[in-house]
Amino acid sequence: MPEHTTPSDAAASELDDPSYRRGVVELLGVLAFGELSAFERLAEDAKLAPTLRDKAHLAEMALVEMQHFVSLRDRLAELGLDPYDAMAPFEATFTRFHLQTAPSDWLEGLVKAYVGDGLAADFYREIAAFLDLETRTLVLEALADSGNSAFVVERVREAIETDPKVAGRLALWGRRLMGEALSQAQVVAAEHDGLTAVLVGGADAPSGMDLASIGRMFTRLTENHAARMAELGLDS
Amino acid sequence: MPEHTTPSDAAASELDDPSYRRGVVELLGVLAFGELSAFERLAEDAKLAPTLRDKAHLAEMALVEMQHFVSLRDRLAELGLDPYDAMAPFEATFTRFHLQTAPSDWLEGLVKAYVGDGLAADFYREIAAFLDLETRTLVLEALADSGNSAFVVERVREAIETDPKVAGRLALWGRRLMGEALSQAQVVAAEHDGLTAVLVGGADAPSGMDLASIGRMFTRLTENHAARMAELGLDS
């Protein structure tokens, strides 16, 4: 485990700003719920694995999500909060997302793991710049790749080689995953002003992104998603 | 992560003994499968959790099992083996055990997590003495408590306080868990000579336990199980 940095004076003063603090708590809450939820789904989808080796790979991705969850939860506790209270408001969103995107087979599960992991990492990278030093360090640590992505790429490409028809179905599936993710992200943004204010800046925090920047961020997220789909051998 | 010790000369020479080596490979195989299987069941049983906090506690126990799995698997690979080939012979045993002991509710899941964790730790401690230094270090590392046992004790005691009838049902459940575990352990011992030879000694490794020692080991395992049940407020 990397050691936590001690709070810098800058971080301490930023967290003294109640508006910033509320936003960061919402952000850590949504990320923590997302990680716990990813752990649950990866563990569930690992059951679909055709071999023990495949199951272990997906379980190892679940392990990495759970490690991130523990860091985020402990950071919320350090800030003097009940982590579970901070996470609770995001339960409905993630439940909806996973209900709408329950994989019907192993390959759909693999694509979901890969696309979801990648999208989360991109989002973490995008928001890191707007955070105080300590929160940023934590968020960037959660970017570390589990080293299991290569295995997903290999398996999906093999499956397409064996049966090229698979590619059309998985391409549709990838679009559905991205569509649901963006739609749930909009719900979260609309319902959680504090979180949005950390990104866009508010009366109290004017240093955030403007609307044009947010548009560009979504363009980058979509482009990276397309690149990941291409890496899997799929149209986006 | 603790660093691996470099192989001692003693370990290298013990592992040169084909009979010892075969036993250790079987042992690492059964432990690795047990950890992966415990991860799966804990992740599954976490779904029964009444609150987010409870779910996170069980998921964190699953995380710890998965970390042990990764160490054991990597050790098998270091020994030049395909870890999944070494694990495969134990699949039927664990599948049977978990089928016979699928918890019907959250409390049964908690008791199973606690009893299973404890029994595994006791067994690891018992066998460590018969292993070469490097394997022993690895096995002893896997003993580290996840720190979530206290939470199980608290939850089960609360449930009994709220409804004392629960205690009878959970006591029966604990006996069933122990009975199934012992019966599966017998199957494993009967089917895997190499593994048994590491413990009891064979023509090539006469330094193991005699039958009286094995009897005493089972007595200790049973006594510790009874102590754990008492800790939960349950008869054994």
From TrEMBL, chains A, B:
Superkingdom of the source species: Bacteria
Residue stretches making up the Ferritin-like domain: 19-202
Protein's name according to its UniProt entry: Rubrerythrin
Species in which this protein is naturally found: Mumia flava
